[in-house]
Amino acid sequence: MTDNMETVVQKQGKMPSRYVFFFLVFLMYVISYGDRAALSIAMPDLGKEFNLSPVQMGWVSSSFLWSYFLLNLPSTMLLDSAGARLIGSLAVSLWSFAMLLGGLVHNITQFLFTRVLLGVGEAPTFGVGATVVRNWALPKERGSVMTVLLTGMQLGLAGGTIAGAWLITLFNWRVEFIILGFIGFAWALVWWLVYRNPVERAAVTPRKRISLSEVKNLFGSSSFLGILSVQCTQNYLNFLMMSWMPLYLMHELHIDITGTGTRTALCYLAAAVGAVIIGKILESIVFRSNPSPARRRFVVVTCLVGASTIGLLPSFHTMTPILLVMSGSLACLIAANGANTALLTDMLEDGQKIGTVTGVSLTCSNSLGLFAPIVTGYIVAWTGRFDMAWYMCSGALLVAGLLSVLLVGSPIRMRHEKDNVASGF
User: Fold this and answer.
1) In angstroms, rounded to a whole number, what is the distance separating the alpha carbons of residues 393 and 220?
2) How confident is the model over 374-379, as a mean pLDDT?
């Protein structure tokens, strides 16, 4: 695979540099998470306007995940058939339209509909990113490339939070949604004009249809189960922080919406920089003596141990230690996500099915992640604090790291050996 990938990269000819494609994927993540952050920073004002309780705010925060996790697999199966160029453009256009509608609603029912529509648009996002990395990144650089791309999530959260805070202060949360919604349409147009599939693969290799039996066979792979356990737990903490961090900072530090937006953005920016540094250092150490792709799981587990420090938050009640713990935990979480995603692309035997496999992992992880805002809402309503939410995440991350070390090792095959023989492979 390495030689084939290097050949494709060398023969791309007049096509735009693959780094342009990576940069556009990075921007897609920035826009996606900027639009998600728009709700978290708007939640205090939106909650007042629609008279929402903490439990109801938790349900609203999770609403885009209802359609998002249901469509992760179907949308990425479509991605493997239609290609990243078409699906990427359509997906970003759809969720940007949902953002615009969100700023025009008159009641909470209409707002929930726009969030569900946003989830429909965002469903294939990470499948698109994984497909581009598999198509255009050399195997030895996938971990670093994926980690850098995933920092776009944190930059999007930072930019969306601070821009949203100022737009809400100057105007209102509706204007925030409308302005942020327009940005995605520009990206969709550029992606359609610029992105192309690798020339050799597009011209020579026919796209394969993927059966449901192949999808089911994934769960017979111990490596896939190890990778999936990490995806599920890191996704839970990711959605918890994305939904509740501004309100948590307001609760603990007693600061206004502008101050909250600034400090939340600072956490995300510090985490993005830290994730790149952590990922590069750990990869250089882990692969120094042995280039085996399965060794990337040791990068994953080390990062998960770092992310589990989120369980220390209840011990602090002043600004500096809270921001340091949150930033450090987030940095390790991003690095773990990048390494784990790269591990999935490395271990998957048939690279043309990476979109579908990513969709399967996202369906499972987002089905758990959608409960994070809801469960946290109940915890806050019942206890008046966030402590139990942080403790739960910390313990789950440590367990997932252990499972990754124990289970990941052999290649991930979507066909059993008897299926391969029957098909003539």
Assistant:
1) 27
2) 89
